[in-house]
Every structure is written in structure tokens, then in C-alpha cells.
Amino acid sequence: MDLNEYFENVKGLGVLATADAEGRTDVAVYAKPHIMDGETVAFIMTDRLTHHNLQSNNHAAYLFKEEGPGYKGTRLFLTKVREEQDSDLLYSIRSKRYKSEKEEGNPRFLVCFKVDKVLSLIGAGRDPDKYE
After folding, report:
1. For the domain bounded by 3-123, which CATH number is listed?
2. Could you give the C-alpha distances from 111 to 11, 19, 29, 87, 120, in angstroms and in order?
3. Which of 9, 47, 92, 106 is 20 to 30 Å apart from 86, CA to CA?
């Protein structure tokens, strides 16, 4: 699947799920990922629960439900590979969608993830090596 083409052309709602080191979970509505390259995506986030969880557990899952009837969409299984705080790259990416000025006292983070697996929203994807 060409993630760049998919997220450029499909409207919908995204949800990012994380857990801390003890397994306490969080789920938050997130915009579409920024596609960095064929196997890396990034999200811009503030220092809240999702970002906090990623400091002790670098795994996350992103669910995207396409607009319209039914359950079409995709799931991305992710591993955090790096992050940057208030970087020029973050604000150049952010300026494509939003006002790009830095806000005093409200740091932003560009969190980059390797895409480990891509599955459809419904169906295929049971990994017998991990779940039996």
C-alpha cells in the first residue's frame, strides 16, 4: 500500500493507541500521519498522555476509519524510532496544515515511527506466532 497516496486522497478519522511501561493504555484522536518515506510516518504531538506513554513504551497502533458508511480503513502497527522537540522540520511540516509559529510554554514533538505492519480495518491480520 502506498501510504502517501492513501492518506493524501482519503478522508476519515484517525485514532492513535499507546500504552506505558506498565501496560496502562491511552487512545486519542489524531490527524493523518505525515509520511516521511516508504516505511516511516510521523505525528506532531504535545506533551500529554500519548507522548508520555511513548517515553517508556515505543510501540503504538494507528487506526484510520474512512469517511462514509461501513468499516473501510487501515491499521498501522508502529515502533517509535526518534523524536524532535520544536525542530525546524516539525514546523515546516506543520505549516502545511496549520499556523506554524512556536507557542511559548507549549512544546511540540515530531515523533517518527517505523511502520511494522499495515492491515485493513476489518479482517485479515491474525498473527498465529504472537496470539496463540
Report:
1. 2.30.110.10
2. 22, 15, 16, 11, 23
3. 9
